[in-house]
Every structure is written in C-alpha cells, then in structure tokens.
Design brief:
Number of strands: 5
Radius of gyration: 18 Å
Largest sheet: 5 strands, parallel
Length: about 160
C-alpha cells in the first residue's frame, strides 16, 4: 500500500503522516519502520529500496516513510515504489511539497491513496489556527488572532511556521 501526502501545507501534511505512523505503530508495535528524507540525502533511496525488498524477521509488516520521493529519479527507485503498491504487509507513506506524479505517473493509479494539502486561507485558516491553538491550551484575544493571521499570511513559507 502506498499513501501519498502532497501539497504546500507542510504542517498539516506532517501531522497527517505522524498520525498514520502512530496508528500503524499502535496496531503493529513490533513492525519495522524506516524514515528517510530524499531531499536531504538522495543516496538513501537504495536503503529504502533494500528495506522494501527484505523480509521482516519477526513481524509480517513494515512501514517506510519518505520525504520528497521525487528528489531521486533513479529507475530502481521508481520500480521499488511501484512494487510497493501491491505488496502485502508493506505501507509506504510519501510526503512531498509537490505532487510527484510527474516523475512517477503510477502514483495516480489504483492502489495509491492520495491526499492533497493546499495552503489554507480566509475563514478556513482562522478556524484551523483557533483549533490548533486550543489543542495547545492557547487562547487568542481577537485582536491578537487578527495580528497573528495577518503575519502568517504575509510570510511566504507560512505552512512551515504553522
């Protein structure tokens, strides 16, 4: 199974990835887990490929989390991802700022769960910020909330700040 999380809102994308991994860990506490960032370390694609191909010794499941999968365009990497779509006991979670389907068109096919994370704006952003603040025990004065939102919207990488 492959789960593709993509879009410019890196905060919500990473929160979703954390939730998926936590749910997987709760269900399979002894499962193998490998997390790599191909943007920072493109050479790690071989470790990911090997991880996907090696059987687990003690459990029947494993999860691979990959940040920026399209940072590597090696044929072997694409083949490993394609094989993972139908592999039993393997979950691959891909997280990317842009849809990697241009590099890997098979990521639009059946068997790949896709979720896009667009940047929020307007009332939707306001509700999201208030919900996140409340979850952290923060209460905004209305004028402070307006200031925070205006500052957030003015910042070009706002999802990285959220």
């Amino acid at each position: 199974m492959v789960i593709l999380l993509f879009g410019p809102d890196s905060y919500r994308r990473m929160e979703k990835a954390k939730a998926l991994i936590a749910a997987y860990r709760a269900k399979y506490p002894l499962a193998d887990l490998l997390s790599i960032d191909l943007e920072e370390n493109p050479e790690e694609w071989t470790s990911a490929r090997d991880f996907l191909r090696q059987p687990s010794m003690f459990v029947d499941s494993k999860v691979l989390f990959v940040r920026e999968p399209a940072a590597v365009e090696e044929k072997g990497w694409g083949e490993a991802l394609k094989e993972a779509i139908s592999a039993k006991g393997i979950v691959v979670i891909l997280s990317a700022g842009k849809d990697p389907a241009e590099t890997f068109p098979f990521l639009t096919h059946e068997g790949v769960e896709r979720q896009e994370f667009i940047e929020l704006a307007g009332r939707i952003l306001e509700v999201f910020v208030m919900r996140e603040a409340k979850a952290r025990g923060v209460v905004f004065d209305p004028s402070a909330l307006r200031f925070f939102l205006s500052d957030l919207l003015a910042f070009p990488l706002r999802s990285a700040r959220a």
